[in-house]
Amino acid sequence: MANDVLHELAQVLESRKSAPAESSYVAGLYAKGLDAILKKVGEEATETVMAAKDGVPEKLVYEVADLWFHTLVLLAHQGLAPDDVLAELARRMGLSGLEEKARRGQGA
Ligand SMILES: N=c1c2ncn([C@@H]3O[C@H](COP(=O)(O)OP(=O)(O)OP(=O)(O)O)[C@@H](O)[C@H]3O)c2ncn1[C@@H]1O[C@H](COP(=O)(O)O)[C@@H](O)[C@H]1O
Fold it and tell me: Which GO terms describe its cellular component (predicted)?
């Protein structure tokens, strides 16, 4: 289910690249450019931290959804897709703990 949602949303985000800026929220964000998208990612990250501190699970889920959404917009803007991140996570799952530490430059 998770992948279906991500892929469907990614398709919508791609389609917004050819939509007029005033026609939708995502098209408007693309038109404002990278800095505007990064600003939203930063805001949503902060709101996620605040929601976690509040300790209300529903609020946290809502804010993480906003954060994921805006990171997906960022990926699309940069010519990337959810599959690129999922492949990286899958690759990491295939690494042993030691290999993972070495990869991050924390090896013995
Ligand atoms: N999942 C989302 C989604 N999540 C959050 N948002 C928008 O992200 C913004 C969140 O920003 P804030 O919480 O800061 O609220 P805000 O103050 O209203 O935001 P700003 O206007 O200041 O940017 C809101 O405007 C939300 O509507 C989303 N907008 C769109 N989608 C999906 O993207 C698709 C394409 O959207 P459109 O381009 O609008 O058609 C939609 O069909 C949805 O599936």
Answer: cytoplasm
